[in-house]
Design goal:
8-stranded parallel beta sheet, 9-stranded parallel beta sheet, 4 helices, about 300 residues, alpha/beta
Length: about 300
């Protein structure tokens, strides 16, 4: 019901062909301390394989949980994953949702996350994308009650000819709600990043506090980013900001570190890791945060350009 496919052909395709997925139901007042992990492993050996997983997370009043959603592969075949995740959150629920996509570099990954949030609930949703030749995450959240706190947090690492696309809509339908979107990208080679963020404030959504930020760090001259933060406001008493940056490492920051005895290569590594760490550190569940921080560190260290000085 939250992702009916209207305006999203891939969500409609998923609704027509999905056969399996994860279903999580939290009763009122239930607090799950251990994380719930939905792990999807593609074992396709031949090109053309397709999967349509669909996940439904229902949390009733006052429940609390952490949900990890991972997509990985065991082979390098060119296959297609088309996933949909729905979150239906009741009053005063606290949910942390972390989606990690690390599929084959020959794969295609299309996903939609649709969330409907009730009165007083708290949702923080992370999207970490490092794999797939082409990936697109469509995220739509409907703030349907008052006093809602919603954070959308994401990091994408691309190189070669990868493309990572994030398209999101945050709909403020009721007053006294806060939403914050933070997305960072580190791009290398001829890869491309796309960010389209839209904050929609309905006439009834007075006292809205919304912030949207997209930062991109280019490690090569051929990497490109298309970014479009967008505000659509129909209420009068709101506080909304948005912004986007695209560029290289700040030479003044490198000089600052070098002036304190740190080598140039080490200084560059520190700044790039800190740029990614800005997103990772918002993951609340400590073991997941530490594991993803380690994985992102390893991926960055595998890139020879991380410590390489770029010519201007």
């Amino acid at each position: 019901q939250s992702a009916q496919g209207e305006g999203n052909a891939f969500a409609a395709l998923n609704a027509a062909f999905f056969q399996d997925g994860g279903f999580i139901y939290l009763q009122a007042g239930r607090r799950v301390e251990a994380p719930i992990h939905l792990l999807f492993i593609s074992t396709a050996k031949e090109s053309g394989a397709t999967s349509h997983p669909r996940n439904l997370i229902v949390a009733e009043k006052g429940s609390r949980a952490t949900v990890l959603e991972s997509y990985v592969s065991t082979n390098d075949a060119s296959y297609f994953t088309n996933a949909v995740t729905e979150l239906v959150l009741g009053e005063e629920t606290v949910i942390e949702h972390c989606k990690f996509q690390d599929e084959s570099r020959s794969a295609y990954h299309i996903a939609a996350v649709h969330a409907r949030l009730g009165w007083g609930c708290n949702l923080i949703s992370h999207s970490i994308a490092t794999g797939a030749r082409l990936s697109r995450n469509t995220i739509r959240t409907a703030l349907a009650g008052e006093r809602i706190e919603c954070i959308l947090n994401g990091l994408y690492l691309t190189h070669g000819d990868q493309l990572a696309d994030h398209h999101m809509v945050v709909e403020h339908a009721q007053p006294h709600c806060n939403s914050h979107e933070y997305y960072n990208g580190i791009l290398d080679g001829k890869s491309k990043g796309v960010f389209h963020g839209r904050i929609l404030v309905r006439p009834a959504a007075q006292k809205t506090d919304a912030k949207q930020t997209n930062k991109n760090l280019l490690l090569s001259d051929d990497a490109t980013v298309d970014t479009k933060p967008q505000l659509e406001i129909y209420a009068d008493d709101v506080k909304c900001t948005h912004g986007a940056t695209i560029g290289q490492l700040n030479e003044e920051s490198i000089f600052y570190l070098r002036a304190r005895g740190i080598g140039e290569e080490t200084a560059r590594r520190m700044l790039i890791h800190a740029f990614a760490g800005e997103i990772i550190e918002r993951i609340r569940y400590a073991p997941a945060r530490e594991e993803l921080d380690k994985l992102v560190w390893e991926r960055l260290e595998q890139n020879p350009r991380v410590g390489e000085k770029r010519s201007v």
